[in-house]
Amino acid sequence: MTTTGEEHARGRSGPWWWARWRSAVLDGSLALVSAVECGAEGIPFARDAGVPLSVGIVFGLIAGSVLLVRRKWPIAVVLVAIAITPAQMGFLMGIVGLYTLAACELPRRIIGALAGMSLLGTMIVTFVRVRQDMARGDLTLGDWFVPFAAVTTSLGLTAPPVLLGLYVGARRRLMESLRERADSLERELQLLAERAEERAEWARSEERTRIAREMHDVVAHRVSLMVVHAAALQAVARKDPEKAVRNASLVGDMGRQALTELREMLGVLRAGGDAGRRAAAVPSVAVGEAAVVVSRLVQVEGAAEGPCLSELEELIGQSAAAGMVVELSVEGEVRSYAAELEQTAYRVVQEALTNVHKHAAGAKTRVRLAHRVAELAMQVENEPPPEAASASAAGLPSGGNGLVGMRERVVGLGGVFVSGPTEAGGFRVSAVIPAV
Question: Across the beta sheet with 427-434, what order do the strands follow?
């Protein structure tokens, strides 16, 4: 199991400059062995130098114990090892010091210079000692053995620790880089998860808003017409039975149409509900699921065969049958548009007529539709309602969401929506939608 860089930094629990107690124990052990080695080698050094043995032993113990600070001051350890090379002591300290130096994050020129000094010093000392041994007769080999022994000994004591240290240092830097990348990836994944959760929440909010808008458009118009026809039915039930029968038939047709549209919309919503539940239940893949939910919202909007502009005459006829005086005028060359655009234009006109039924019953209304080169424009304008009709329309409830829903639809397609009262006392709803 790997650890990230932050966990690695928090894992520093050793004394002084050591990251871990294990490292401190290792360095203490190496320093102890090095001190014993140098102390033992200080005995012949003291004899050759003509100093008391205690001085040579103490000198060796002090010099060998310098290995304890190899992680803190590796250059100092190597310099001490080079300095005591003529005394033929500190072999362990030199090997470990060179390894530590090469593994540190120091410039290569410094590592190369100190390694070269150690190599040269070991070569000179070995050359002198072997030559002295051959002069005393301890070695009977040829003269070629002196440089050979000097070169091989110096290379054997210098090259392996330096190469191993370079390898370990490169591997350590690679691991640090991988830890940093792991930290970065973890932060990016966390950020993506947060963004995905926000997108999923946004998608759910958009879905709720869209469902509310669809419910309002489907139900409000039909129910408003049903209320108007019911009021007319109540007024003429005894005076004109035939007209009462026609009004009752219209009320039934309106109710059946509203139920049909509701069933179609709810059926599509059930089919698209699984994607939203998966997006909310699995945050780890919420980015993809949120995209699925958003795409599902777009599909739901046009999955069922929604209304289109060719059905405007039927819509206006229904309002006329409810007693509204309404005129339709079409300008420009009639052509087909994208399903979403036609559905939006239909809903705008439908909601505007619904508002007339609610707030200006009996008012004369004009519906204008203009097919332009790169856009589709529509306008629904009603005159002030008669006073008696206004009083009768007071019983129709209004949630105040119709204009908001129309604006959201039009702006969602990049269009412009304007609504407000007219100077004559009526009300006007205008919308322009790009037809690109």
Answer: 326-331, 365-371, 375-382, 427-434, 416-421
Q: Tokens 């620790």: give the residue.
A: 161
Structurally, the chain folds into a number of domains equal to 2
Nearest-angstrom CA–CA distance, 304 and 268: 7
> What is the Cα–Cα distance from 431 to 212, expressed in whole angstroms?
21
Which of 188, 221, 246 marks a domain boundary?
A: 188
Task: Pull the structure tokens for residue 242.
Answer: 């035939």
Which residues, given as ranges, of the chain have pLDDT below 70? Answer: 1-12, 137-142, 216-222, 229, 232, 235-237, 264-306, 388-401
Quote the CA–CA distance of 207 and 281 in Å, as a whole number: 17
Give me the DSSP letters along 312-328: HHHHHHHHHHTT--EEE
> Taking the C-alpha atoms of 243, 245, 250 and 253 in order, what is their torsion angle to the nearest 10 degrees?
-170
Same domain membership, residue 329 and residue 181: no
**What per-residue confidence (pLDDT) applies to 48?**
82
Burial class (CB in 10 A: 0-12, 13-18, 19+), 256: exposed
Give alpha helix (H) positions in 90-144: 91-103, 108-136
pTM tops 0.70, yes or no:
no
**Amino acid type, 93:** M
Give the integer Cα–Cα distance in Å for 307 and 316.
Answer: 13
Structure tokens at 222: 């039909």
Q: Of 156, 188, 220, which residue sits at a domain end?
A: 188
- The CA-based angle 314-319-321, given to 5 degrees, is 90
Residue 332 Rama label (left phi>0; alpha psi -120 to 50; beta): left
